[in-house]
Amino acid sequence: MKDDYCRKTSHSKSGPGDAGKTGSWRILRPVIDPAVCIPAKRGTPSCYMCWLYCPDGVISRGIPPEIDYEYCKGCGICAEECPTKAIRMVEESSFIKEDT
Ligand code: SF4
Ligand code: SF4
Q: Which of 27, 42, 79, 87 has the greatest number of C-beta atoms within 10 Å?
């Protein structure tokens, strides 16, 4: 039981939880600008404040970091914590218009 709890911490791998694919809850989508994101600019793993603070553990520590939109709820904490303001919260509806 304790192990189950530990797997649900913020740094566990994203995946189906009790609420399923929570990405459908999202109203705003976080979008990372690689021109401003520190690891993308430097080409080295660094910063990752977004990864550290994401409550759902859906951001990878890649270059640049990647967000798993199937599970990101759009809470905006990553955008708040990013030291360079590399993450913009964009209306989810604007992506629906692009798809149609
Ligand atoms: S917090 Fe901002 S600058 Fe740092 S890795 Fe995340 S997106 Fe890039
Ligand atoms: S919006 Fe919230 S859930 Fe989505 S990646 Fe950012 S911190 Fe994580």
A: 87
- C-alpha span between 47 and 67 (Å, rounded): 15
pTM for the full model? 0.83
Q: Which CATH class is domain 11-93?
A: alpha beta
CB 10 within 8 A of CB 57: yes
From atom 8 of ligand 2, which residue's Cα is the shortest distance away?
Answer: 54
Instruction: Tell me which residue has its CA closest to atom 2 in ligand 2.
Output: 75
> Domain extents for the chain?
11-93
Q: Is 32 in the pocket of ligand 2 (CB under 6 A)?
A: no
Q: CB–CB of 35/91 below 8 Å?
A: no
